[in-house]
Amino acid sequence: MAGEPLVLVVEDEPAxxxxxxxxxxxxxxxxxxxxxxxxALVVIRETPPDVIILDWMLPHVSGIEVCRQLKNGSQTNxxxxxxxxxxxxxxxxVRGLETGADDYVVKPYSVAELLARLRTQxxxxxxxxxxxxxxxxxxxxxxxxxxxxxxxxxxxxxxxxFRLLTAFMERPGRVWSREQLLDRVWGRDIYVDSRTVDVxxxxxxxxxxxxxxxxxxxxxxxxxxxxG
Length: 228
Prior knowledge:
five-stranded parallel β-sheet, elongated
């Protein structure tokens, strides 16, 4: 479904891979899986996930090498990586973290604890995905109540405009291309003409200016749109 965080599970043990995928989907997130390091790199290149759960011991390309390549890549170095490993020695944890892993979980692990760590990473990069309230200047977006306020006044937004504003407010200042907004708001598997983005951004602007306030959305010629 559009807007839901995408989690990549890279695990060569089929039973563990399926248990993780099942539980992550039960949390309301999208899941893609890979069973080898080289396969994971292809998936990440084609469909960048929001968070990666990455086993250390993988066939072909190890998890530690996958992590190293991701953290050295300008397009992938901001994707959080949770490393899974049967290696419990401190030196191994240090190596995993120094390679760039954002968290390190030792096997056998509690699925509940791993999900909590996943939510922590999502809260850092996509706070709206875990029910946080977002604020930008005088705009307040409440994910729990599914309401938007500006200068204390409640605004009426359609579902698409709400998802658009969520994306903008999670990353103020970031310039989103039309294609990126299509992926985030409409979904990766749905074909929508890119001009549709312009229509819905126009509707969002109108709603945000309904109380006479300034337009907070910036058009970047040849690039897309940004909040602020």
